[in-house]
Amino acid sequence: MGAFLFYLFKSTLCLTALYFAFRLCFRSDTLFRTNRLLLLGGTFCCLLLPFVQLSIPQASLWQKPMATVEILLTAPSSASPSTRLHAEGTEAEQTLPPTVTVFAPATAASAAFSALRLITWTYTGGALLTLAFFLLSMLRMRQLFCRYPSERQQGFRLIVCPLRKGSFSWGRTIVLSQEDYRNNREAILLHEQMHLHYHHTADLLWMQAIIVLHWFNPAAWLLMRELREVHEFEADNGVLLHGIDATQYQLLLVKKSVGTRLYSMASGFGHSKLKQRINMMLKKRTNRLARLKLLLFVPVVSGTLYAFARPEVKNAVEQMVKPPVGTQSQDTVRMDERELLEQYFARKLKDGGGTVAPESGKAAHRLLVNLRNQVMIDQEGTPTDCADFIRKHLTEVLRKDYQQAKQSGQPFRSSLEIIYDRGSSAEAMRLYLYTVKEVYRQLRQEAAAELGTTDEAALDKAFPILVTFAQPKKFRKTDAAEKLPMKITLIAPDGPSKTLSNFTLDELRNEVEDFRSKHGETTVSLKVERDVPMGMVMDVKGILRQAYVTRLNYSSAKASSTVEETVKKP
């Protein structure tokens, strides 16, 4: 639902821009047909523009507000990297977008989810209520059409109502009051015939559909009002072109200025503002060259698409894996996300019917990452755009396996084994694991649509996430005398702490053992630079296990909170 709400947000921006552009540049023109087509075509484009996905080389200030809103609307329900908090046997789960570096408490995720659920229910209720009012208006018109006899005319059906109701038209039916039929039949009937001739009913149905979808959006209601006014201008112009005296017709408008309110969807003789209708009749015809003002929408549409654009995947990977030349990265690798993603896959493997992990080398598919962060899936590989390659190729092979399993009547049990080199970047591995999770999320959504259920247990059975990890390749071993680009803080229960930077494995072992001997149980806060190889991180954690450190915090330079995990004793 979060993705749908984000679509509504983007289409709301488009409709708002359309309304103000029409109001400022086109509303006073007498090019009624052009204005009508502009409103219809513009609203149609406003609903389609959010689906257009453009890529730009680098994100700018234009994209940041959109990215923020997308995170707020989609993060609580998306399958982003899961952050799990382990403390005294309890755990809570939250989701983080791939670009967020701050670790929020689990309560924040719970609050965001509750807010999203409230927004969802509020929107659904409003849409249903708006639809109900529309159906009620339609029901009233149908009752009126069935209550009174009708007369077949050329191309339409005429109903003369004995009650004092305003005249209106809907579809191919025109309703006149007896008073209008006796006294002003020619002008009013011709006016309503113009509504039928220009197929205004179809326009109103289209706008009503938008109103149901955007019931909360003032711009949608204002655009509906503008279209109604254009309808009246167009019908009035058609009446005058048929030879009706303009003065007498304007006096009739003054007399019949109050139209029906019961049938709000209909095209009524008295709809729209009287003064503006008369002014439009008296106004000098707008030059056809005024249509060139439509070119103003080119920069508006271009700016909108640019605001909706996303950075290219290649650049995103480079920014996450390689820091800018000549600068020192102040961010830290979100090691917790990588390891907690591994925990997520282990948990989903268990949820998939208690499936036992296949032996190493026996999985249906293998994902290999070398020390240069290049990726190979089975026999297919790429040196660049690795995340995009994983997304496309893994989606293709898993979708094919799922379809084959369905056709054969066998359960889907395609597994994926991930093997990474110790020399690969920890941040690159985090990105790749997140991409794998997103692939499974997308495919499980497709399966959910086919099955007609979103139950997680049912999806675990129909489309299990069978991801396993082989032992990393020992290509890159950490030298005992090698200085590690990390920062570790040792924290004692009674408050004292000690910080280590650029240490060797031996120095770390000695410092940790000495600190524990003085202060007892120790908590370790670990910060890792962006390009640290996986092997170094594994070796550091091995030292901590050997030193019986049972509590390890991963912290970010931009975050005040930390994520804590329990380190298993050897």
What's the gist of this structure?
With 570 residues, the protein is of the alpha/beta class.
General description of the model:
The chain is elongated and about 105 Å long. The strands form 5 sheets. The protein has a 5-stranded mixed sheet. The two termini are 44 Å apart. The chain has helices spanning 2-25, 32-48, 63-74, 106-147, 178-183, 185-197, 200-213, 218-241, 246-255, 274-282, 297-308, 313-321, 335-351, 386-408, 426-451, 456-462, 505-519, 534-546, and strands at residues 55-56, 82-87, 90-95, 150-153, 156-161, 168-170, 173-177, 267-268, 310-311, 365-369, 375-377, 380-382, 416-420, 467-469, 484-491, 497-503, 523-528, 551-555, 562-566. By secondary structure, it is an alpha/beta fold. Helix content is 51%, strand content 15%. It has 3 domains: 2-56 and 120-305, no CATH class; 336-469, no CATH class; 484-566, Cytidine Deaminase, domain 2, CATH 3.40.140.10. It contains 18 helices and 19 strands.
What is the element layout, followed by pairings?
Blueprint: H1 2-25, H2 32-48, E1 55-56, H3 63-74, E2 82-87, E3 90-95, H4 106-147, E4 150-153, E5 156-161, E6 168-170, E7 173-177, H5 178-183, H6 185-197, H7 200-213, H8 218-241, H9 246-255, E8 267-268, H10 274-282, H11 297-308, E9 310-311, H12 313-321, H13 335-351, E10 365-369, E11 375-377, E12 380-382, H14 386-408, E13 416-420, H15 426-451, H16 456-462, E14 467-469, E15 484-491, E16 497-503, H17 505-519, E17 523-528, H18 534-546, E18 551-555, E19 562-566
Parallel strand pairs: 1-9, 5-7, 10-13, 13-14, 17-18
Antiparallel strand pairs: 2-3, 4-5, 6-7, 6-8, 10-11, 11-12, 15-16, 15-17, 18-19
Helix pairs in contact: 1-2, 1-3, 1-8, 1-11, 2-8, 4-7, 6-8, 7-8, 13-15, 14-15, 17-18
